[in-house]
Specification:
The complex is a heterodimer of chains A (172) and B (182). Chain A has 172 residues and is an all-alpha fold. Helices cover 80% and strands 0% of the residues of chain A. The longest helix of chain B has 44 residues. The chains are: A mainly alpha (172), B mainly alpha (182).
Chain lengths: 172, 182
């Protein structure tokens, strides 16, 4: 019971620090679960994070996988609630605030000022992912084709993911 | 722009985003909301995402709370968020069990490597497409490029990038609107 509360508290703290999502909070997550609480070793930590990235869904769910590893299903529940709830309450409040301010002429331009940050950070994570995934000519070719495909067409990106996986299986 | 989504449509749309979101849900979120179901315009969506970016938590998760609330209040937030997380969590439970049972098997690693490369291109392609559709003025393009450099090449902590570039972007955008209509 005390363990479950500790999990809830640890991931609840992380939730409020995670400006920018999972990758931003990764170092602090490592500090808490490996160094402060000693819930797992280094290797397990990185394997569990990779596992969460290989699965669909927001990468922040790495917290859920770690909760499972620490204390089974109830550990997963505590870690997930801790990670999601505080941030969700804040986002809910923020939406109410912008709704109440919507008559003000400055709101739209002010909000549009955050857009380049959002788009720039998406591009930035794409570059970070490409740096990690680009190991040989084939993976660079997959990255390039996939970029152009998603940029220039309206087809579902699932095609390039499946194609990339198939090419990797055949040629890598 | 299409019809506003019902609660069931919100849930199903977000379930699709969560389940297809290999390598991150960002590109899928935009694909489903802007391109496929037309719940929001490119600009509306980017504004919600920008707000989600300065708040803690995954920006797509924050966007699900805000978009859900915009269409159906608290219950909208709940169904959108539940839709986003329920599928991936079920898969993660299975993966956690499989991981403890099997560990690594041949063939899995090369496949995952190909998927990871395609996912990297998918994320970059999405950013280029959004930038192209939004047509920001030159000074805001510079802010966007600074975010890319800070995050990908200088590897600055994200809170630092947000603290510097969020006020800068807001100021530049407000200044432009004041100049247009004093």
């Amino acid at each position: 019971m005390i363990l479950l509360l500790q999990i809830l508290l640890a991931f609840g703290t992380l939730s409020l620090l995670a400006i920018g999502g999972a990758n931003a909070v990764l170092p602090e997550m490592h500090r808490l679960v490996v160094e402060v609480h000693g819930w797992m070793d280094d290797a397990t930590f990185s394997q569990l994070f990779a596992l969460a990235q290989a699965a669909p869904g927001p990468n922040i769910l790495a917290a859920s996988v770690m909760g499972w590893h620490i204390a089974g299903p109830s550990g997963m529940a505590m870690a997930t609630i801790g990670m999601l709830l505080p941030a969700a309450i804040l986002a809910f409040t923020m939406q109410g605030l912008t709704h109440r301010l919507r008559g003000n002429t400055w709101l739209k331009p002010a909000q549009f000022g955050l857009v380049p940050l959002a788009v720039g950070l998406i591009a930035g994570s794409g570059v970070i992912m490409a740096q990690a995934a680009g190991t040989d000519w084939l993976s660079f070719a997959i990255i390039a084709v996939s970029t152009v495909f998603v940029w220039r067409t309206k087809y579902s990106p699932l095609w390039v993911l499946a194609g990339g996986g198939a090419l990797g299986l055949l040629l890598l | 722009m299409g019809e506003p989504p019902s609660k069931a449509e919100l849930f199903l749309g977000y379930a699709k985003i969560g389940l297809l979101g290999f390598g991150g849900v960002g590109p899928w979120s935009r694909h489903v909301i802007v391109e496929e179901r037309k719940w929001l315009s490119e600009r509306d969506y980017a504004e919600v995402l920008g707000l989600g970016q300065i708040l803690p938590g995954p920006n797509v998760g924050n966007a699900s709370v805000m978009i859900g609330r915009r269409f159906h209040g608290l219950s909208g937030s709940l169904v959108a968020t539940a839709g986003l997380y329920v599928g991936p969590l079920a898969i993660l439970i299975m993966l956690s069990i499989l991981y403890e049972l099997y560990g690594t098997r041949p063939g899995v690693a090369p496949f995952m490597q190909g998927v990871a490369a395609a996912a990297a291109g998918m994320v970059m392609g999405t950013a280029i497409k959004m930038g192209q559709n939004l047509r920001p003025p030159p000074e805001l393009i510079v802010v966007g490029l600074l975010a890319v450099v800070g995050a990908a090449f200088l590897r600055l902590p994200l809170p630092l990038i947000v603290v510097i570039l969020a006020p800068l972007g807001v100021y530049l955008s407000l200044r432009r609107s004041w100049m247009r209509a004093p």
